[in-house]
Design a protein that fits this description.
By secondary structure, the chain is α+β, with helices and mostly antiparallel strands. The chain contains nine helices and 15 strands. The structure holds zinc ion (2 copies).
Length: 383
């Protein structure tokens, strides 16, 4: 049931903001824990009531018969078995111990908190590296501006549900193998609200909310990972009866990149190095994820599969901005076609470097390297 916030402050439902503030100040002076240590709970209650009634949005919910602080209880959302599910059976068995059959359940009120909403947004690796502003389209329930959430037409009022007499639920006795079992079901007429609207708002049909599509821009911070969600408080679904909106979650998905493979904050790429450059050593320029370039040092005698690390050219870490590293995997390329002069030079190279070729079988090499990828190796003499 909704708490009587006006009653807690001792003011009428039509009280002005000034009257509410005055009533709170007076009570707060009397009940403050420094003055009156025994009144701590009462002080908290009064403070909560003031916080609710001094917030126009929350006060509107109170005036509509709801409780903005009700949260996921009273059969809404928090019941793991869902309203009308297994929870009813447990309540039947344990009802006596918790102070009465169906105790604390009652009608759940028409004004209830809204559900969260979820939309997806797809980012390139460059956008993840730099952070991005993305336009999204959301389709959620919003407050009905005709009835302001009350669900009623003009000045008409809701009436107590005739089927459940306002209880929001219907009890029935059933015979089963357990003997006589009492079950409690949500009232099918009012769906647990306890009242019905005989003359509903023409725009929303009594729900107090309508669906609306809007576009908005959402800021995605640099360094997010696939599957992460950005939460936008209060941008989700408005609740039944114009209840406070749930949150909107924007879930990030990362597009595959043609060049870089991501590993946390580090990036990996493959760089092709001509055979001669791998043997003699060189410096190469590679593109980085943020559109710049970095210089790679290829040491003389570089072997295929060598990984060169470029510090700070990976992705920024979420929130800290400290950047990971770029790992360049060097792919040594042997020319497929060579002309006569190149062929002569290579033959000459073979002669001066000697004929010594160390043949290592796949098995023995794998054992020596602890099972890593292996291949035949041509060891140049003296290197
Ligand atoms: Zn309406
Ligand atoms: Zn009913």
């Amino acid at each position: 049931m909704a708490r009587d916030y006006y009653g807690i402050l001792g003011v009428s439902a039509g009280a002005s903001d000034q009257e509410i503030k005055r009533a709170y100040r007076k009570l707060a002076r009397e009940l403050h824990p420094d003055v009156n240590p025994d009144a701590e709970d009462k002080f908290k209650e009064v403070t909560t009531a003031y916080e609710v009634l001094s917030d126009p949005e929350r006060r509107r919910i109170v005036d509509a018969g709801g409780d903005p602080l009700a949260g996921p209880s009273g059969g809404f959302g928090g019941d793991p078995f869902g309203a009308g599910g297994l929870g009813d059976i447990f309540q039947t068995f344990f009802g006596g111990a918790t102070g009465g059959f169906g105790g604390g359940r009652g009608p759940r009120g028409r004004v209830r908190p809204g559900e969260p909403a979820l939309v997806g947004v797809s980012l390139t690796l460059e956008e993840i590296a730099a952070g991005a502003r993305k336009e999204i389209t959301v389709d959620t329930a919003v407050l009905c501006d005709t009835c302001k959430g009350s669900g009623t037409r003009d000045d008409s009022k809701p009436v107590t549900c005739a089927t459940c007499k306002g209880a929001g639920e219907i009890q029935a006795v059933q015979r089963s193998f357990l003997g006589q079992v009492m079950t409690v079901r949500e009232c099918p007429e009012c769906h647990g609200v306890g009242e019905t609207i005989p003359d509903p708002c023409l725009k929303c049909g009594g729900d107090g909310r309508v669906r609306s599509r809007r576009t908005m821009t959402v800021k995605i911070p640099a360094g997010v990972q696939d599957g992460m969600r950005v939460r936008l408080a209060g941008q989700g679904e408005v609740g039944p009866g114009g209840g406070p909106a749930g949150d909107l979650y924007v879930e990030v998905s990362e597009q595959a990149d043609d060049v870089f493979v991501r590993d946390g904050d580090d990036l990996h790429c493959t760089v092709r190095v001509p055979m001669v450059d791998a043997a003699l050593g060189t410096e190469l320029t590679v593109d980085t994820v943020l559109g710049g370039s970095a210089t790679l040092t290829v040491e003389p005698g570089t072997q295929p599969g060598t990984v060169v690390r470029v510090r700070g050219q990976g992705l920024p870490h979420l929130n800290s901005g400290v950047r990971g590293d770029l790992h360049a995997h060097l792919d040594v390329v042997v020319p497929k076609r060579i002309d006569g002069r190149q062929s002569d030079l290579l033959r000459e190279l073979r002669e001066v470097s000697g004929e010594e070729v160390e043949l290592v079988t796949a098995t023995s090499k794998a054992a020596a390297n602890g099972g890593l990828f292996s291949k035949l190796r041509n060891a140049f003499a003296g290197r």
